[in-house]
Amino acid sequence: MTAKTAKQPKQSTPMSGNRRKNKNIEKAWNEVCPAPIGGRVDKPREDGLTMIIDKGLGLMQTRDLLDLAGEYIDFIKLAFGTSAFYSEKLLYEKIELARESGVEIYPGGTFLEIALAQGRLKEFLSKADSIGFTYVEVSDGTIPMTPKVRKETIKACLEAGFTVFSEVGKKHPADRVPASNIRETIEADLRAGVYKVIVEGRESGKGVVIYRKDGSIDEDELEQLIKRIKDPGKLIWEAPLKEQQQDLILRFGPNVNLGNVQPVDALALEALRVGMRGDTLRAAFLSNPSRFPLAAGCKEPAGGDGLLD
Questions:
Q1: 167 phi, psi to nearest 5 deg
Q2: What is the largest CA-CA distance in the chain?
């Protein structure tokens, strides 16, 4: 299951890839109103990652998304096994288009689960390499995987030269596992060398891991999950719903890693992160009203970096 010779990780990453010029274009409002929540990390970055879920964007749609919001996107996940239906030429072009914006595209973990279950992991990794992927995701959201097989699979992906995400949590509520088991898997995956661990949220954001059936966050489950995790920045929380994104930002700050964000929500999420949307703007005001002198009745604004500083 492991490659014969370890390869160096590929160098085209959101942290080191080429950049489109839109980052250097002056914004329309040009800091007329600074972000109420300060401290947002710009790309290239290791924290504050935004991962978009892509269930079938064409090249023109992808180009539009990147022109509008590429500066705020770090990863695009080609959901589940959708990349199997692309032509190789189109897939290659899409990967290169995203990379020009410093965005990496990678295939969903379900696709790798299928390859592994069919005994085709080596072929899967070889094809992923030839197409131009530099990241892969190891998960067992649907098909069970022993800790030994999981560790060997991560090792095989690393030795093939990929940067590896892992994902924890089951997709079906009937397969749900205790938070303590998930926490142990997170710790084991990080020891095995994964880049980040994604916490399952699915497209719906309901009835999985930290989310109740109505999509609200189960605080007890969340606390159990992050207990003993030394660096919460190693986690990416799949949070497809606005209320989930808002709650995680208010809890962990503007640079929490969030995934399974719909393409149309890329800018809306960035607005949430920096207090340019009412939900987090209210929290910013309540935490430091002196930064809003007219509303607070102050003569002059006070200093400070904003929410959760």
A1: -130, 140
A2: 69
Query: What is the tens place of the pLDDT at every residue in 50-76?
Result: 999 999 999 999 999 999 999 999 999
Distance CA(286)–CA(82), nearest Å, equals: 44
- What is the layout of strands, in order, in the sheet containing 135-138? 104-107, 75-78, 50-54, 258-261, 235-238, 196-199, 163-168, 135-138
| pLDDT tens, position by position, 76-88 | 999 999 999 999 9
Angle between helices 266-274 and 59-69 (to 10 degrees): 20
What's the CATH number for 21-296? 3.20.20.70
pTM confidence score: 0.88
Contact 268, 277 (CB under 8 A): yes
Looking at residues 90-97, what average pLDDT do you find?
Answer: 97
β-bridge mates for residue 53, sequence order: 77
pLDDT at 101 over 90: yes
| Separation CA 260–CA 244 (nearest Å) | 11
* CA atoms of 293 and 301, how far apart (whole Å): 5
